Structures are given as C-alpha cells and as structure tokens.
Amino acid sequence: MSEGYERERSFLKANWERVEGEWRSDQTLGLPAPPLEESPKEGERLFALPPSAGFEERGGALLSLLRGRKSRRKFAADPFRLEELAFLCWAAAGIRDRRNEVTAFRTYPSGGCRHPLDLFVFAARVRGLPAGLYRYLPVEHALALVREGDDSGALDEALFEQYWKAAAVFVWAAVPYRTEWRYGPVSHKIILLDAGHACENLYLACEAIGAGTCAIGAYDQAKLDAYLGLDGKDRFALYAAPVGRSPEGKAAAGAD
Ligand SMILES: Cc1cc2nc3c(=O)[nH]c(=O)nc-3n(C[C@H](O)[C@H](O)[C@H](O)COP(=O)(O)O)c2cc1C
Q1: Which of 57, 137, 156, 211 is 20–30 Å from 46 (CA)?
Q2: Given CA atoms 177, 140, 91, 152 in this order, what sign does their dihedral have?
Q3: Which of 76, 123, 112 is nearest to 194 (CA)?
C-alpha cells in the first residue's frame, strides 16, 4: 500500500533530529533575516486597498475572529463542557455533506476531497468524558475511546514539553494512502496543505468560544506515533494543537 512512497512520506514527518548536533541555522550564524515582503519596485504602481471594516455588517463575526486569532499557550484551569469539545472536533474535522460511502465534504477543503487526516483527541479536562485518548469519528460525530487514563506526562514528552496543561490536545494523524490512492507521488504536498486548513479551522473555532490553541510542528515523531498507537508507516502523527479556555476568554465561553 505504501510501496514506493517512503521518501515522499518522510517529508510529512517531524524530522527534528536533523537539526540536532552540529547543524546551525543561518539565524544562529548571524545572517540577516529575509525581508517581510518583496518590496514595491521602483516605478511600480500601488493601489491602496480599503480596510476590511466595510464588511463589518455582513462578515462581523468572521472579521473579529480573524483579528483576534493568535497562538495561545496559556490555558485556564477550568474544564471544557462536552458541547465545546464537540464543536471544536466538528470544526477541525467534521462532515458537512456526506455524498456516499466513501466521499464526504468537511468543514475544511481537501485536495480531491480525499481527507487523509484522522483526528485524535487527548481529553484531560472535559466534563462528561473520562480522561483519556480518543479518536474522533466524523461519520458518527462521536469519540471512540482508545484508552482511558491521564497519561499527559508521556504526551508532554512527545510534544517536547508543549502540553501546557491544556484541557485537551488535538493530534492529526496522516493516512497518506487516502490521497495516494488517487494522486500517487504528488500527494504529499496536498496532504500538508490540507493539514494547514484543518488547524486554521481549529484556531478560529477556539476564538469563537473564548478558547485558544497553538499549532505544534515540533514534536518527537516516534514518541507521538507510539503514544497514538500508530505504525509510523501507513499512519503517523502530523500536527498537534493543545486547546483550552483562554484565561481571558471565560465569559465568551459561557463558563458555567
Ligand atoms: C506549521 C506550524 C508549526 C508550529 N509549531 C509550533 C511549535 O511547535 N511550538 C510553538 O510554540 N508554536 C508553533 N507554531 C506557532 C507559531 O509559532 C505561530 O503561529 C507564530 O509565531 C505566529 O503567531 P500567531 O499564530 O499568534 O500569529 C507553529 C505554527 C505553525 C503554522
């Protein structure tokens, strides 16, 4: 099933061991940072764009979510309500239009609608859910308990100490064959682009309920795969995001 695509699949992995030891970045070597943008060239005509405030009425909620979105690494100690976690799961991986047995459109776009990402959720503090590792089932809109118990220590280690005492941690796993089945060797860029869309949905959904998250690309591949019980070949961890209520977002979250 994965025959021939090991090299391409390796680009989807964390690979942080490659920057350990002797390796030095240009930043560490003191080279100047590349500019923020390609500056306007001499003589190039500029057309100033109006601010987006004109859409306040029609796109008000989205505008404030986009303006407020940022990576949040500090979380309130209070738990999520089950409805909040359910909303975040749906935003990050949910189905909006099921076509048939093998095709379903979701809340985020995916190249060829192949949806090669599975969502795992470690729930530490969610009312109505025993602490444990779950797998989100988008078809059923349900969580399947993979294993019960608070093993956040192992997860923290796999995430290079970036668990941040979150109420829950979302981890997307890649199942590359879903995309390779159609696109073969050109699948892997598509899979990475898909993951970006899914995680941005989670960011915006968090903002909408007074919660926060932070994308995590720096993690220990082998440890996170082992934590999730994945073989590291046909299914492996790709992206993670601890979530929790923002300390300042309690009112918006409707804390009870
Ligand atoms: C692909 C990707 C990987 C990231 N990995 C990490 C990470 O491992 N640890 C971390 O603290 N932040 C991580 N971030 C968050 C970025 O540091 C953050 O998005 C950036 O500083 C810009 O801040 P903002 O999200 O508040 O706009 C990651 C973001 C992206 C998009």
Answers
A1: 57
A2: negative
A3: 112
pLDDT given for residue 53 in this prediction: 74
CA angle 180, 186, 190 (to 5 degrees): 80
Mean pLDDT of 130-134: 98
Is residue 158 over pLDDT 50? yes
The residues, ordered by sequence, that sit 6+ positions from 76 with a Cβ below 8 Å of its Cβ are: 244, 245, 246, 247, 249, 250
Q: Say how many Å lie between the CA of residue 199 and the centre of ligand 1.
A: 11
Ligand 1 neighbours, Cβ below 6 Å, are 70-71, 162, 214-218
CATH number (domain holding residue 93): 3.40.109.10
Q: Report yes or no: 80 and 96 within 8 Å, Cβ to Cβ.
A: no
Q: Which domain holds residue 237?
A: 72-245
Residue 33, domain member (yes or no) = no
Q: What pLDDT shows up at residue 2? A: 52
Q: How far apart are CA 121 and CA 144, in angstroms?
A: 10
Do the domain assignments include residue 238?
Answer: yes
Ligand 1 centroid from CA 214, angstroms: 6
Tokens read off for 185: 């060797």
Each residue of 184-225: pLDDT tens digit?
999 999 999 999 999 999 999 999 999 999 999 999 999 999
Mapped onto helix, strand or coil, the DSSP state of residue 36 is coil
Alpha helices in the chain (DSSP H): 6-10, 56-68, 82-93, 152-158, 177-183, 187-208, 221-228
Ligand 1 centroid–CA 210 distance in Å is 19
Whole-number pLDDT of residue 177: 97
